[in-house]
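Re-run with default settings, no changes from the original entry. Doing this only to confirm the output is reproducible before filing.
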Amino acid sequence: MTASDLEQFAAWIEELIRRRGYDIDSPRGGGKSRLADEAGVHRAAITRLLQRQSMPDLETTRRLAHVLDVPVRDMLIRSGRLTEDDLPLPRVAAASPADAGERRMTLEEAAAGLGVPADQREMFIKVAGQFLSASPVRRESLAKD
């Protein structure tokens, strides 16, 4: 990690924190404390990051990602700790799996690849599944329901 990595990451996360509604600019805004409390991390870790003094450890990064609703993958890549090559996304199947000789990605795989939080994956799968064309057998069972 270089000083440039820390500067770029801190600037990105600072903007993200503001967009998520945390008041980190006014001395008494309480945004740093609120963010630290919601993430379950020390306020000092937030302060050190925003002052470009140090990069958060892996657990703090994971907790911040969850609270800020950002995939951990994005946080690790933006921090400069890992690259996109280190954390490749699952391959997306061709429009027709038969044409490509591959199987179609499951909704569970799509949710994981998109960084959908575990507690929201069931809802994602239910909603996304409604957009997939049903097979003839499946259409018949839907008509009976």
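The first helix runs from residue 3 to 19. Confidence is low (pLDDT under 50) at residues 135-145.
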